[in-house]
Amino acid sequence: MLIGFEIDYKTLPYSRRERNLVTQTTNGRGPKIRDVALHAGVSTATVSRALTDPASVRPALRDKVLEAVKALGYTPNAAARSLRAGRTRTILVVTRKRWSAPFFSEVLNGIDTTLARAGHAMILGNFDAGDRREEEIIDMMFSGHIDGAIILSGIAADTGTRSMLDAGLPIVSISAAVAGTLAIVTDEGESIVRLADHLLDGGHRRFLYLAGPLGNYNETVRWAALRAHLAGRADATLARIEGDYTMPAGIAAAKDFLAMAERPSAVVACNDEMAIGFMKTVRAAGVAVPGAVSVAGFDGIEFADYCEPTLTTIRQPRFELGAAGAETLLKMLAGTMALADGPVRLVNRLRLADSTAPLGAG
Amino acid sequence: MLIGFEIDYKTLPYSRRERNLVTQTTNGRGPKIRDVALHAGVSTATVSRALTDPASVRPALRDKVLEAVKALGYTPNAAARSLRAGRTRTILVVTRKRWSAPFFSEVLNGIDTTLARAGHAMILGNFDAGDRREEEIIDMMFSGHIDGAIILSGIAADTGTRSMLDAGLPIVSISAAVAGTLAIVTDEGESIVRLADHLLDGGHRRFLYLAGPLGNYNETVRWAALRAHLAGRADATLARIEGDYTMPAGIAAAKDFLAMAERPSAVVACNDEMAIGFMKTVRAAGVAVPGAVSVAGFDGIEFADYCEPTLTTIRQPRFELGAAGAETLLKMLAGTMALADGPVRLVNRLRLADSTAPLGAG
DNA sequence: CTGTTAGCGCATTCAT
DNA sequence: ATGAATGCGCTAACAG
C-alpha cells in the first residue's frame, strides 16, 4: 500500500495530467458542462453562452468560464448538442464503389477543406445500387445524423421504397447533375466541342469515341455534344466503343480498334483512364501515338502528365468543384441559397499535350 | 375550394405519399418513437425493444410495431440514440492533405466496406500539423461524436496541449505504426530486401534510393532495411536523394541523377509516384529504362501497370489493410481485442515488370 | 447580463 | 413480456 505517494505532475506527459483532472469531476466519462459551471462558480447556462456566444457574457465571467474549460479539459458533448439544437454540423458525402479515385479524391479534398473551415464534419458513404448500404445511406438522411448531403455518385440512393431526396434535407450534386439537387457542373459539352475542333483543325475526320457507362450523366452530355458537333460536318465520321471509365476498358477498346479495317485517326475518350489504357495497348501493338492515331482524354487527372505520351485532355477544376459544392450546401443550410439558384457551372480548360498531332504529322 | 378532392396515392411518387403520412404525426419534423407507439397501440419502450432487440418482444406485438414503423416511415433519431447509449457507431478516419490518393483511396474503400457491414459510419478528416483543423480533430475525439479512430496520416493529431491519443478511445493506425495505437502494417522491410536481392541477382551493385519525407514511418523502415541489407555487401554502393512521395519529387531526383558523374544502375524509390516521375524524366533525357538504369517503386498503385515501362514494385494489399484496420477497431470496441494484441502484419508481394532488368541486358 | 427550468428523443431501469 | 418513469448533456425560454 502506497501512502503519501506523490506524483510529480510536471514530469508527467500532459495526457496523464489531464486524465487525472478528468477524474476529479462528477463521473467517469469526462467533464460535463455542470462540472465547468461548478468550477467557475456560474450556472450551466453561462458556460453554454460563454462558449457559443461569448459576446453575451461579461468579460470577467467569460474569462473565468474559459479558464475552467481549459483547466478541466472540457469539450461539449456532440450528441447532446445535436439533440438540443436539431442540427449536427455534419454533412454526408456519397460516392460509388467504382469511382475514379484520381478524379474524386481531389474533389473530396475541396469539400473537406471548405466544410472544415465552417466547422462541419464529413461522413463518407460508398454505395452501389442494390446493396444494403444504399438503405443505410437513406436511413442516415432521415435519422437526423446529418444536415445535408453532397452527391458524387451521379445518382441518388433510392431503394424504390424511398429515396435520399425525400428526407427534405438540402442536397448538392457535384460533377453530375442529379434531379432534385442543386448541381455543380462544368461546361463539359462545350469543352469536348473545343477538343473536337482542335482535332478537326489538325485535319482529322475519322473519329472514335470511347464511351463511359450507359446512362451516366457525364457520358450522356459528352457524347451528345460530340455527336451533335460532328454531325454538322459532312466529311466527319464518328464511331463509338462502350466502356466503363476504367483503364482495362481502355485496353478492351484498343483491341477493338486494332481489329478495325479502317482505323479512325482521332480517339476521344470519355475520361483519362480509358485513354491511358487505350494508348498503352495500341502502342504495344506498334501503333504510334500520335503518329498513327491521336488520343485525347477527359478530366485532367495528374497521371495525364506522366503517361506515355503525355495526354491531351480537358482539365476539370476538381478542387474547385468540391469547394463550390460545399460552399453551396453551406449556403443552402444558411438559407441564403436555394435549389432554384442552381445549377452552378464551372469552366474546364483544354490542355494540349503530346498524344495529339495534326493528321499525317507526329 | 376543393371539396371531396381525392388524391390517388397510387399514382403519386412514393416520396409524396410518405411526406403525407409524416405530417399526420405530432410535429413537423418527422415521426418520433411516441408516434410509432401510439400508432401500434404499445408503449415507447416496446417500440424501442422491437427495434433494438426484437427477440425480447412477443411476435404479435413486434409485427404491429414494425408495421407502424413502416407506415409512418420512422427512423430513430441518431443524436438521441447516441446521447442515451453513449456511443455513436461513428468512426473517425484521419488523413493528411498531401496523401497519396492512388494508395489510400483503396485503403479507405476497405475501411468503408468493413465499417458499413457493421453498421458504422465513417467521418473523414484531413489535417496537417499546425493548422486549425488539427485542433478540431482532437476536439472530435473528446466530444463523444465518435467511438474510435483510424489513423492514415502516419502521425497522431497533437497540438502540444493535447493529443488525440488522450481521449481514451481505441485507435488503429494503418500502414504506419503510431505509438499508442494498434498498428496494421506490412512486412515492408523484408519486402524491400527481396527487391534489392532481385536487383543484386541481376548484377546491380550501384544503387540509388529515392527517399520519402524525413521522419515518415515508411520512409524510415524502408531505408533502414535497404541500407542494412546493402551494407552487408562489400561491393554494393547506395546513394540517396530526398523526396516527398510526389511525382514532381521524382522529376527533381531524376535531374540530380542525370547530373551524377557515375550514375547508379538501379534506382529504388520509396513509392511508385516518385519512381514514375523519375522514369519519365530520365527517358526524356535519353536514358533508357531498364537499358541504362533499372527503376523500382513501392506500393503497387494501379498506374504502375500503365506507365512506360510498366513498373517493378512491391504491391501492398491496400484494400485488405483498410479492411483489417476497420475489423481490428471494431474488435477493440467490442472488447475482444486490445492494444497489446498488435501490431497486425500483412504481407506484400514483389511484382516484377519491365522497368528492371539484369545489368547490361535490357 | 445571469440563473432557473424544461425538454430535445431515445434506451433503460424498475415495476408489474 | 410489457409499461411508466428517469435521465443522457446540452441550449433556449423565461425570469429576474
Automatic annotation (TrEMBL), chains A, B:
SUPFAM superfamilies from the UniProt entry: lambda repressor-like DNA-binding domains (SSF47413), Periplasmic binding protein-like I (SSF53822)
Keywords: DNA-binding, Transcription, Transcription regulation
The keyword Ribosomal protein is assigned to this record: no
Domain HTH lacI-type: 31-85
Pfam families: LacI (PF00356), Peripla_BP_3 (PF13377)
Molecular functions (GO terms): DNA-binding transcription factor activity; transcription cis-regulatory region binding
UniProt cross-references to PANTHER family, sorted A to Z: LACI-RELATED TRANSCRIPTIONAL REPRESSOR, TRANSCRIPTIONAL REGULATORY PROTEIN
Stated name of the protein: LacI family transcriptional regulator
Organism: Aureimonas endophytica
Taxonomic lineage: Bacteria, Pseudomonadati, Pseudomonadota, Alphaproteobacteria, Hyphomicrobiales
